[in-house]
Amino acid sequence: MALKALFLTLVDSVSMLGRINRLDCNISYLYALCYRMQWIYFNLLGRYVHECSFVFGEL
Quick one: which of 6, 23, 31, 43 is 20 to 30 A from 50 by CA? Predict the structure, then answer.
């Protein structure tokens, strides 16, 4: 009986760790995605500003 309870506790803790690990992976994936989106956004914004200043420089 005690062995079964110990086994169940072990399984619980392993599945809990798996869940935490999966959550951690999701968070780091989301962070990477957000960071990449920011980078793309800043890159586009920078290009836009550069082109605008070039156009205004021509005027």
Answer: 31
